[in-house]
Specification:
There is one protein chain. This protein is α+β, with helices and mostly antiparallel strands. It folds into 2 domains: 6-93, OB fold (Dihydrolipoamide Acetyltransferase, E2P) (Beta Barrel); 113-380, no CATH class. The chain is built from 8 helices and 12 strands. The protein has helices spanning 113-121, 153-160, 200-212, 228-234, 310-322, 324-329, 337-340, 373-380, and strands at residues 12-22, 40-44, 47-53, 77-83, 86-93, 238-241, 260-263, 266-273, 279-285, 297-303, 334-335, 349-353. The strands form 2 sheets. The chain has a 7-stranded mixed sheet with strand order 6-12-7-8-9-10-11. Strand 8 and strand 9 form a beta hairpin.
Amino acid sequence: MIFPRESDAEKVTTTNAVYLGIKNYGQEEVNKDNKDSFQYMFEIDGKESTFRMDNGTVNEDGAYDYPIQNILKEGYSYLVVISGNTIISAEETGDEKVSYVPKVQGTPGKRTLLNFLKTAMMPVGTTLYIYGGGWDWQDVGSAIQTRTIGVSPDWVKFFDEHDEDFTYKSKDGNEDNSDPSTSYYPYGGYNEYYYAGLDCSGYLGWILYNTFETENGKDGYVGGSTGIAKRLSKMGFGEWTQNVKAPDGKNGYEMKPGDVMSINGHVWISLGTCDDGSVVIVHSTPANSRTGQPGGGVEISAIGTTEKCEAYILADHYMSEYYPKWYERYPVKLAEPEVYFTFEGENAGRFTWNTENTTDGITDPERVSEKSPEDVLKMLFAE
């Protein structure tokens, strides 16, 4: 281990380095309460070196903005400027980025319900679940990736580097197997792997950004999953309710295409309710792989009681047909209605877009909200 000498405190150097992560990641003392004094590991000229980090400027709330931490990604190369034993700037270099053409392509800034759902499809089948993914490093708002137009190459790269044995936290979903050295869970309350994938609220925040914005770097839309539906209503985009039961004479629950459903600790988007009462949804979820590992990510799923339900058949068809690499790793998730429609408290509930709000919200010229899940999926995947 190399530590810069105290006598070099005023010396400023510029060098290429590969980021290796935070020293002692996962240990109890390395947590959000002392993140301002973390030590960061880099590989420089084949040797591991450890540095402090310039935490940036203090905002009006008295907290640092951590500009360097919010661009650092493990295994990526950077041109860093070092003053003494502190890194004062970093710029990503190298050829780590990969290209990806989504199966369905949304249009940035096009405020229609169809485009909202097209945008939701873009990361499907190529973005893994990361707890805290899409949130910034300090876990208070949107990461750079969720304030950027298009599918992040970082998500695609991370997906390509893993297989069906990927787990975002613990092998076999067993807490006794928790190992920070092989986990991508945010031990310590900060998001070391914010860039690698998306959690449910990071996913929705990215969709909203790419639906409403046309440029990178503006204020983001990521927020707590339980209250997202209600917040959208407060922003004037539509109606929020805790009544999710279908009207008398209909089966189960009533969810229109494009509805956003917040339950306690999760948020998902409806693609509509089938005639048998099952619901097709899209979300980011840590679903089990075919080898039983809790990994998952952004995928089309079904809410129903049996794999024979209409929603499952539709989800299985589209995931197997259009996302075969994902489908090899992950079977379609069949979510239980009593779980995905049960919530408590005053914040969770269902949001429905007011498509007559032509000024600030989104419109529905294609009348998507009136269509069946089968017809919606046909529209989304039309050649």
